[in-house]
Amino acid sequence: MSVSDRIRQSLLALHMALALETLDHTLARLEKGEISAIEAIDDLLAEELNLREGRRIGVALRTARLMPVKTLESFDFSFQPSLDRHRITALAQLEFINRAEVLHFLGPPGTGKSHLATAIGVAAVKAGRSVYRCSLAELIEALTKAEREGRLVEKIRFYTRASLLIVDEIGYLPITPGGANLFFQLVNARYEKGAMILTSNRGFAEWGEVFGDPVVATALLDRLLHHAVVVQIEGASYRLRQHADLIPEHTRAHANLIPPPAPKRRGRPPKNGAVDHLNG
Question: What confidence category does residue 82 fall into, taking pLDDT thresholds of 50, 70 and 90?
Fold first, then answer.
């Protein structure tokens, strides 16, 4: 048996399908002197590693519920000039996850909160971090069901397992009775232990109304703002940008359908602190 045949058998036994597929081409380049032996090995391993990494990322994105995939590259920063692109890019370096901080995206509907949250979640998955994403309504429904079935501790443990938990759409739907308390239990379990990204169309002053309990809302904010980065988006709805003429006039008068001009910046950007307010 030739050396190349033994290599083929080894690649087959190791389930290295792509390396096996590219072996003949790599050997041909080696024989022509185009690459060295060490480069040939590197090529075969790199091809297989890229394939497996792609599969890992695909499975992780589906498990994290980050489909369809959103990226910072596909975000139209020119439509939201209030956002500081460099600061958002810095957040995608994921240091806030290491510090177990909470990242808040606040702003009107359609301003890109969910896109940015998902994009940072995708970056975290690619970096090998565990991520899980859900809406607040889905989260409370799952916790309510678990409590009813006597599995609440187990369910909270599931939501605390991820390095990054993304809770989307806070304030869009009414909270079911008891839901605020369940969410507080989860937030308390992750407090200073795991990072979160929250998106909301309601300001913090309205959270008492959102959760139907000012006392619980205050307790939530006490933990969610202790180690936090707050990104306030003051912009127009990207989804409605081409259909403003279809919106009823009485609604259009109260809707922000035209992106505001980029604000004039003065001084240095705020340094990282207990709460970093980004007006952009």
Answer: confident
